[in-house]
Design goal:
Layout: E1 2-8, E2 11-16, E3 26-35, H1 38-45, E4 54-55, E5 60-67, E6 79-82, E7 85-86, H2 92-95, E8 106-107, E9 119-123, E10 127-130, H3 142-155, E11 162-166, H4 170-181, E12 186-190, H5 194-203, E13 207-209, H6 216-221, E14 231-236, H7 241-250, E15 251-259, H8 273-278, E16 282-285, H9 293-301, E17 311-315, H10 317-325, E18 334-337
Parallel strand pairs: 11-12, 11-14, 12-13, 14-15, 15-16, 17-18
Antiparallel strand pairs: 1-2, 1-4, 3-5, 3-9, 3-18, 5-6, 6-10, 7-8
Bound molecules: NADP nicotinamide-adenine-dinucleotide phosphate and zinc ion (ZN).
Length: 342
């Protein structure tokens, strides 16, 4: 079968490898689509630890082709989404219920073969059924949505809350929708691209702002800004120093900042502890998708979260290596590798 393999740092190749066979508690899944995420590029560049040689791809959806001998509840032909993050269940963190912090965490598409391939092996405990009549590509958004759900849970949005979302990529655009669903009545998305701002307003943002058109603190929270005095909650979804530094300043006194964006390891940003203390800002970090994948699958299955407009490009294996190893093209939200396109 065809698979996009990370052979070593900087070496990504389309290869013909043997089709895997499922272990007793595994599903063999025929991949319908797999999203290209910034993490894949970090893996390619060696900025994120991985175990090459390995097939990349952790945002996949597909149809069960074969079930292992001990599997119940799944059968050939079912569409599934896989939670790629496999916790051991036994370490101290897992036993505290903090499975995203598992010290033995193994991820499909990072430590073991992933979804940029014709087939992927999914341990049955990581699989969640999706409806047969769902537009198949939508299932590729379950994993990023599950990460956003964890962030929005940590934000503790209440009915009537005001929320500022920094960064209008796939994560920011999913967070905007979740924040509205969670009860926020003001959701302001900050991003540079006019197309993404327009899309955010279609998806539920009550206002948007362009950071390149002047000081964002002034535009948002000054006396005649969009949310004078600051937001109840600020959710950082860009993963750049500038927005991480802006986030506390945009929160109201006693507000909450949630960091979803990932900065390269070792990067430092300027945070003013006095300000965090004096205004009692709660600063929380959100990592991965602990126990949120099933909810994400339900939100996608019921089409409660709109993902069709987030699909910028569908590509076959021939274009995959180039697309994964280069930064996303300008204005692109999500590119999906679709094996059926070859
Ligand atoms: P992305 O497409 O790179 O989205 C970030 C967006 O931020 C860009 O599209 C860009 O859009 C916008 N941006 C850039 N500079 C900005 C500025 N100064 N102010 C406001 N917006 C700015 O990436 P993504 O896939 O949505 O992911 C977002 C972040 O979440 C990444 O760091 C990713 O690694 C991280 N992530 C974290 C988790 C987790 O578990 N915590 C899970 C998945 C992803 P414009 O061009 O429109 O400005
Ligand atoms: Zn564990």
């Amino acid at each position: 079968m065809k698979a996009v393999r990370l052979e070593s740092t900087g070496q990504l190749r389309l290869r013909d490898i043997e089709k895997p066979s499922p272990g007793a508690s595994d599903l063999l899944v025929k991949v319908e689509a797999c999203g290209i995420c910034g993490t894949d590029r970090h893996l390619f560049l060696g900025e994120f630890p991985s175990h090459p040689p390995v097939t990349l791809g952790h945002e996949f959806v597909g149809v069960v082709e074969e079930v292992g001998a001990d599997v119940s509840g799944f059968r050939k032909g079912m569409r599934i989404t896989g939670d790629p993050n496999i916790a051991c269940g036994r370490c101290a963190e897992c036993q505290r219920g903090r499975i995203n912090l598992c010290t033995n965490l193994q991820a499909i598409g990072i430590h073991r073969d992933g979804g940029f391939a014709e087939y992927v092996i999914v341990p049955v405990k990581q699989a969640f059924e999706l409806p047969a009549d769902l537009p198949p590509l939508h299932g590729a958004f379950c994993e990023p949505l599950a990460c956003c759900l964890h962030g929005v849970d940590l934000a503790e949005i209440k009915t009537g809350s005001s929320v500022i979302v920094l960064g209008g990529g796939v994560i920011g655009l999913l967070v905007v929708q979740l924040a509205r669903l969670a009860g926020a009545t003001s959701v302001v998305l900050v991003t540079r691209s006019a197309e993404k701002r327009q899309l955010a307003e279609e998806l539920g943002a009550t206002a948007t702002a362009d950071p390149s058109s002047g000081d964002i603190i002034e535009q948002l929270i000054a006396r005649n800004g969009i949310l004078p005095g600051g937001a109840d909650i600020v959710i950082e979804c860009a993963g750049i120093s500038e927005t991480i530094e802006q986030a506390p300043a945009l929160a109201r006194r006693g507000g909450t900042v949630v960091i979803l964006g990932v900065m390269p390891q070792g990067t430092k940003v300027a945070i003013e502890p006095f300000d965090l203390l004096f205004r009692e800002i709660k600063l929380v970090n959100s990592f991965l998708n602990p126990f949120t994948h099933r909810r994400a699958a339900e939100l996608i299955a019921t089409q409660t979260i709109k993902v069709e407009p987030l699909i910028s490009r569908r590509i076959g294996f021939d274009e995959a290596v180039e697309a994964i190893s280069n930064p996303a093209t300008r204005g692109e939200i999500r590119a999906l590798v679709v094996p059926a396109l070859k």
